[in-house]
Amino acid sequence: MATKDGAASLPTWRVDHDRTPPACPLRPLLPLEWTAARIQELPHADDVLKQPA
Description:
Order of helices and strands: EEEH
Structural class: mainly beta
Shape: elongated
Strand content: 15-25%
Number of helices: 1
Oligomer: single chain
């Protein structure tokens, strides 16, 4: 999900998971939330945004 507060502002991204199991190693990184031009620029995006195994 991305939202913008103005025409010139960067979007604010939020990546979360509705049913993150307690044992998930990514749980401490979620929700992934920040303002960036692209979702790949978020902190820890490389760890969280992967193709399913």
